[in-house]
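Hi F.,

I've been meaning to write this up properly since the lab meeting, where we talked about keeping a consistent format for the predictions we share between groups. The idea is simple: the sequence comes first, exactly as it goes in, then the structure tokens exactly as they come out, then a line or two of notes. No screenshots and no reformatting. I'm using this chain as the first example so we have something concrete to point to.
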Amino acid sequence: MKAALVTGASKGMGLEWCRQLGQSGYRVFLSARSQEKAESAASLFRKEGIDCIGIALDSGNEESILLAAESIQEHCMALDLIVNNAGINPKDYPDKQKMASCFKLEALNADAVLEVMKVNSLGPLLVVKHMLPLLKNSSQPKVVQISSWLGSVSQVQFGGHYGYAGSKNLLNMLNKLMANELKQDGIISVCVNPGWVQTDMGGSKANYTIQEAVSNMLSLVWALKPEDSGKFLNYDGEIHPW
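Output, unedited:
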């Protein structure tokens, strides 16, 4: 049985990744910041006959990632897929002053921006770092980093948004570097723009439902080849401009 880890999976797109992977026959490790949230979501899938295990994993905390890796190793010897879906967007902060500290130059706060980058940019790499022995035990290991069109320098037509847009652009670069390093291990790692999706972040007017968006990206995942590693791809498999 193939196994997959999905981060930020207690709701939204991460939850749907777990559902569709489980329905495709994967054992799914559903992770959330707290064990309670992860287990609550996983238990619902088990009632549907999906092999799903809840795991506590905070992408902004390396110790949490290490403990998650140790927990997964108790259940399986290999991971075939990691979907780094966990992320934060300052526009969703209820504290508007904190939101502004990542959005507006006049209010810019380095610690606030670095907090976003720690979760959105470095977190995915640290997840791969600690899951690497499990990935190496897979015959076809793949990593999907959920990026955003907002991380594309050539597409930027707005000002501000330093925290989120900057973090996704940094994720794209860091993934390229990591993918080049891991090619020798046969690990394919790509960044994917999911499109405009009807999540809490994307809003109700977005182009794709969560189910449609994940289905699109799964089709992309099934078709990934070694030469794709390090690329920034659109949800339809086309190259996304850097």
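Notes:
Residues 97 and 107 are 8 Å apart (CA to CA).
The mean pLDDT is 95.

If this format works for you, I'll send the rest the same way.

G.
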